[in-house]
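Second opinion, please. Pick holes in both lines of this record:
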Amino acid sequence: MESFRDDSREGAWTVMLGGKVLVIDVDFVIQRENPLKPILKVANVKTSNALLATTGSTSSTSAPLDAFLAESISRYCAEMQQEEEFRNPLRAASLRKSVLQHLRYLVLLDRLAYRKDDGGIRWFTDLDEFCPTMAAVAKAEAEIVASYVTFCLFVSM
C-alpha cells in the first residue's frame, strides 16, 4: 500500500493508505489539555473500496473493520505514550506487530480482490457475512459451557 499524509487541519491529520482497490483513512488528533504533554489519539478510521464505488455505494467497506482497526491503532498509540516507567516495551512491540499483521492481511485481501478471474468485493464482504454466524456459534458454546460449570458446581455441593 502507498501512504500519504494530509496535515491541512491544525492539530489533526489523516494518514491515507491506498492499495489497488482498498483505501484506509486514519484520522489522528492531538489533545492538548496538558500543553506539556500533548496526546495523539485516533479520531476515526474509514475503509473504502473502489469495487463498492462502482456499484454506487459510498459507504464504508465494513463498520466493524473500521472499529477494529481504530481500536488496534489506538491501543498501540496509548501504550507508546505511557510514561517511561509505566510503558511495557514487550506489550508495545506486540501491539505494533498486531497492527502490522492486520494491515498485511488487508493488503492480501486487496490483492485478491483486484485479481481478474476470481477477484471482487466478496473478499471483503464474505467475512462480514460470516462473523454473525461465528458470533452466534461462540455464544451458544459459551452458554453450554456455563451450564456445564453450573451443573458441576451444583453436583459437587
User: Anything to note?
Assistant: The chain has one domain: 2-120. The mean pLDDT is 85. Residues 122-156 form the longest helix (35 residues). The beta strands are 2-6, 12-18, 22-31, 39-49.
